[in-house]
UniProtKB/TrEMBL annotation:
This protein's UniProt keywords: Hydrolase, Signal
Matches recorded under InterPro entries: AB_hydrolase_fold, CBD2, CBM2/CBM3_carb-bd_dom_sf, CBM2_carb-bd_dom_sf, Esterase_phb, Plant_Biomass_Hydrol_Est
Domain CBM2: start-end pairs: 319-428
Pfam families, sorted: CBM_2, Esterase_PHB
UniProt-recorded name of the protein: PHB depolymerase family esterase
SMART domains hit by this protein: CBD_II (SM00637)
Amino acid sequence: MRMKAKVFGAVAAAIALMATWLVFAPSAPAAALTEVTGFGSNPSNLRMHLYVPDTVAPRPAIVVAVHYCTGSGPAFHSGTEFASLADRYGFIVVYPSATRSGNCFDVSSPQALRRDGGSDPVGIVSMVRYVEQRHNGDPSRVYVTGASSGAMMTNVLLGDYPDVFKAGAAFMGVPFGCFATTDGSGWNSTCANGNLIRTPPQWGDLVRAAYPGYSGPRPRMQVFHGTEDTTLRYPNFGEEIKQWTNVLGVSQTPSFTDRPQPNWTRTRYGGSGVDAPVEAISVQGVGHSLPLGGMADMAIRFFGLTGGPTSPPTSTPTPPGDPGACRVTYTVNAWNTGLTTGITIANTGSAPINGWSLVFTLPGGQTITSGWNATYAPASGQVTARNAGHNATIPANGSVGIGFQATHTGNTGKPSSFTLNGAACAVG
């Protein structure tokens, strides 16, 4: 397959840099990424890495997380939040790795675009079957997500195996069949440039042809795209919406529209809630660099996996006590347009804190793009950082460390105040 490394270079560089920072994050749970061999039919010799949290449900859900071109399963594991979300919610993550030239997945050959036709989709489904058999994975709760080449594979897997996957979330992808070629090439410039425009029924027919005769339920779909994407251009976002609203038999007119963040526009089709058949998030002014901070969590919420065994307690978190019973130390490492932070939350009271939320206001122009050891929402303005599953308790006279990566427009300052479970903390 002929691919240009620069195509997805921005994504690879960003995730590699993020992975470097994560090395210095506070210690994680004992769970680790492991490679699995001999997992079943694998016609294109994919590699499989598996992340099983320390605590999983008796019948855990399975999330397949598919990397970008030039990437790998381990890089996608270290550079995205899916493993930390698995720690929090108790599902298992499968990370496939492409092995062909350019490390791109096959989303274009006739073999890839039909059920059991061979190539990468067959190997990925074998990985799912392996987890179902060896780790008691729940076949009714299997999901797939991916970025760029992995987003294209997300579309392909939902088309080829609607009976395997319950939902998908595609970051910067193209519709099923958009990249199809018959000359052995793995690149389709017409599609990549957003020039392949079809009617909803035409797009839907491509999906239905992948599994002739199938009449069962179809997986739900969530799509994300940046308006300034110059690699897989923005018109592909609208074509994906056309395709999946047609496949799922819902109107192309949104049932619900909102803005989860100032530059995000979210539309839902066929329903107004988080379980809508199709959800689409357009990100204004952003290029080929998704997922950004908070988007992985949005995908997991769309899948319905936010009630797992390691979720924070549903009861009211233990307050830290009187003002001054907590102390926050906040350090910044900044460069031209970006920064990272290290935050230590110390419990200076005499009783443990069980479940915590740290609230602070970022200086203007700062926007969180990723984080570790906590979830952060929204990405700018007044932010709430909530504990992960493994650090929900801060013992008396103990502390936890969290952090995040952000962009900035010149102001690299620190928040002026912090509250922990509603009580003010000392700073410094």
